[in-house]
Write a structure and sequence with these properties.
The chain is built from 12 helices and 22 strands. The strands form 4 sheets. The chain has a 9-stranded antiparallel beta sheet, with no helix packed on it. A 7-stranded mixed beta sheet has the order 1-2-16-19-20-13-7, with no helix packed on it. α4 crosses α5 and α10 runs antiparallel to α11.
């Protein structure tokens, strides 16, 4: 008769398999996303060949909700004829002027070309994990933040006059066009990273003037050198919050897997290739993916955020905007060739992301002035700051289902570090605290496993007695468990208890800036894998000692853990350390440290039980 693995063995296998896939399942319950109306994508302009595709259209299921997401392509730039009149050539802009506003924590640079923010620097955050590293800085010159997009006379092709007030925290920018004057005030706070930007449009003419619908840019964000992504997550992204409908924050960067929000990386694909699922069931691509794409979301929005792993820009206008243009470029894989379909990338790896809030047309009567105030945040993804800004901006952290556990864990770590200035020691103390809180449950689970081990002779006798009656064996086994007060599920308690903390720490590590560049022993950055001796091994990027220590402790724990006698479970326990080594090897060091400390605590608990039993 074939032997089936014990029920608790099956549970353990399912839990381990669920760890890398939990984030996929969580997306299922996000609000349904608007449909994508595929149109020609933006042709590549640099580093990749231009691609011409035939645009199509699909019916949008989002018409009922008033939300649409449509791809759009900018018109090609045509060469001017040789006999073009001088009047056809736009006047050259005067020499660019740049001024700096700062409060010691934040340094922003304003440009007279468009009146936007062309760079930002965060003094308290080093760019590299070195003592003499320069601060983190963002270059927005190609797509200046807070400059208007396609608003003639006031966009990036327009000149502004700049006056900086005494103190260096306030600047006034002014431009005029067609009888309308735009006065912009930019104020940097005394401390913090949230600027106040107020635009005043004044009609100084004798007739009414209508300004066309335009966008307000949010600068380009890419990866910071040296930072890697956690497997399974896209850290570059754009978030937005709808003004109506009570919907949750949409994370356009990561998207959804089960028919939820489409990801920005999907927009590089042809319509038939978009979405998740098995690639074997999809048709072969008919074109090389474009270098960049632009998608328009038609929906009243409260705010829009553009972010990378640890930093974010957020623009929140006082009055809701009517949509947003999502923009992204991809990284071109080495060896990609236009005429060789076999070399084409199958999925887009985002290189950078940017956005532009959409505002409706504005009509001004003679002498009338209209204001458009906005809050602009450029700084770290700090949960406390995000929460204090309100309007669900803390959703930018993407804590997911285990948000309460994430918040509690982050609060606990920060308060421990205030006393013990080491996030590594704080993680170990959190591990011991969790083990201490749930000691009664884990103790009960261990005792249950010991009683199950003692019942193995009787279970073996039942299997011999009812050799050809599997249902009878199961019934008799359950009666035996009940008689001896044994719960087969109790053996799973030690692992099940750790799952919420494990996932919470996993989520915290992928977005909270607190653990960035945190040192511990030989580990230079707890938010990254160790990556010692890079290039030494051909398969992996570097040597990671902590996963090897964790594996050794896992083997030791396996040897001293009471066995139920089930051969299938014994085989699984032999291979479990190898599975965990593969799974954890490239994980952030803080996550591996937590699981290693947890393994050590379980071994100590198990040795105590064995000694007590003797």
């Amino acid at each position: 008769m074939k032997r089936w693995p014990a029920f608790d063995t099956i549970i353990v296998i399912l839990l381990v398999a669920a760890l890398p896939a939990w984030w996929l399942i969580s997306q299922k319950y996000f609000p349904p996303a608007p449909a994508i109306i595929p149109l020609p994508a933006i042709a590549a302009t640099t580093n990749a060949p231009a691609v011409t595709t035939a645009g199509g259209a699909e019916a949008s299921s989002a018409a009922a909700t008033g939300t649409t997401l449509e791809a759009r392509a900018e018109a090609p730039v045509l060469s001017a004829p040789t006999n073009a009149a001088p009047a056809d050539v736009p006047p050259a802009l005067p020499e660019e002027e740049r001024v700096v506003l700062t409060n010691g924590m934040l340094r922003v640079e304003l440009t007279s070309h468009g009146g936007g923010i062309c760079s930002a620097e965060l003094a308290r955050y080093p760019a590299a994990n070195q003592r003499d590293s320069a601060p983190v800085s963002f270059n927005f010159r190609a797509w200046p933040s807070m400059s208007y997009d396609k608003l003639p006379g006031f966009d990036a092709q327009s000149a502004f006059r700049i006056v900086v007030a005494p103190g260096g925290r306030k600047a006034t920018l002014e431009a005029s066009s067609g009888g309308v004057r735009l006065v912009r005030e930019v104020v940097v706070p005394e401390q913090g990273y949230q600027l106040q930007v107020t635009d005043s449009f004044e009609n100084r003419g004798a007739t009414a003037v209508t300004l066309p619908a335009a966008g307000l840019r949010v600068g380009t964000m890419g990866r910071i050198a040296g930072e890697t992504e956690i497997s399974g997550f896209t850290h570059l992204g754009i978030d937005s919050l709808n003004s109506v409908g009570g919907e949750k924050t949409r994370h356009w960067g990561s998207g959804g897997t089960f028919g939820g929000t489409p990801a920005l990386s999907d927009c590089f694909q042809e319509p038939a290739l978009r979405g998740g699922g098995c690639a074997m069931g999809k048709p072969a691509p008919t074109r090389q993916m474009p270098l960049s794409v632009s998608e328009r979301v038609n929906q009243d929005l409260d705010w829009v955020a553009v972010k990378n792993k640890f930093f974010v820009q957020i623009v929140k206008p006082l009055d809701p905007c009517v949509g947003v243009d999502l923009r992204a470029t991809r990284t071109v894989a080495p060896g990609e060739q236009p005429g060789n379909p076999a070399s084409w990338a199958k999925a887009a790896l985002l290189h950078d992301v940017s956005a532009a809030l959409r505002f409706p047309a504005l009509t001004l009567k003679p002498g009338e002035t209209a204001q458009r105030p906005c809050q602009y945040y450029v700084g770290p993804k700090d949960y406390s700051a995000m929460r204090n800004m309100g309007v669900h901006m803390d959703d930018i952290m993407e804590f997911g289902w285990f948000k309460p556990v994430c918040i509690a864990l982050l609060w606990l770590l920060k308060h421990m570090v205030a006393v013990i200035p080491s996030y590594g020691l704080a993680i170990i103390l959190v591990t011991l605290l969790v083990r201490g809180i749930f000691w009664p449950l884990t103790h009960k689970g261990t005792e249950s496993m010991k009683r199950m081990q003692a019942l193995q002779p009787e279970i073996k006798a039942l299997k011999e007695k009812f050799r050809d009656k599997p249902q009878k064996i199961q019934q008799a086994t359950m009666e035996l468990y009940k008689k001896n007060k044994v719960n087969p599920m109790s053996g799973c308690l030690p692992i099940m208890i750790q799952i919420p903390v494990f996932i919470a720490l996993y989520n915290v590590l992928r977005s909270a800036v607190e653990l960035r560049h945190a040192h511990f022993l030989w580990i230079h950055d707890l938010s990254e894998a160790e990556n010692l001796f890079p290039g030494l091994l051909p398969v992996v990027s570097g040597v990671n000692f902590l996963p090897l220590i964790m594996t050794a402790l896992s083997v030791w724990q396996t040897k001293i853990t009471p066995s139920t006698g089930d051969p299938a479970q014994q085989r699984m326990m032999v291979f479990m350390p190898v599975i965990m080594l593969v799974f954890f090897y490239s994980m952030p060091s803080a996550l591996v440290l937590y699981w290693t400390a947890n393994q050590a605590a379980m071994i100590v608990q198990m040795l105590w039980h064995l000694r007590h039993a003797k």
